[in-house]
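Proteins fold. Shown next:

***
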Amino acid sequence: MKYKTAFSPLAITLGVLIFAGIAHATQQHGEPTGLVVHQIAHLMFVLAMIVLMVVLKRTVGTEVAGWRYLYWAAFFFLVWNFLAWGVHGIQEFIHETAYVGTGYWGKSLSLDTQGGLRTFFYFAKLIAPILNVIPFYFLYRSLKSFAKISE
């Protein structure tokens, strides 16, 4: 496969890794406004995925592999968004004293009291990033299928 750019994807990836700096890309939800806006964004994403799934079912169907993979990508984005929305909400009910340790990376959650809520929160927060990989896999398969058709 020939690339029309001066650099190959491997060279770009290596360049980004070698010259990477601090991104400061973590969003904290300490203030109520940041959490509310973030939660609204999750709900808007949910709505967009529902609309996409309905439109795909009603118009093009899922017989063609590319559309079927796109449908499943939307479904798993929907599942991930519901889980992330719930995790952010539950986090507001867990008091700051439930965390032991200091610093952002040194804190850990104590499961001594409120075991059910904290345990669910812990596992949901652990699973959410992993679950977010699944829709990107289906999106990749969808794009690959459409690229194969267009050749």
Remarks:
- The radius of gyration is 20 Å.
- The beta strands are 99-100, 108-109.
- The mean pLDDT is 80.
- The first strand starts at residue 99 and ends at 100.
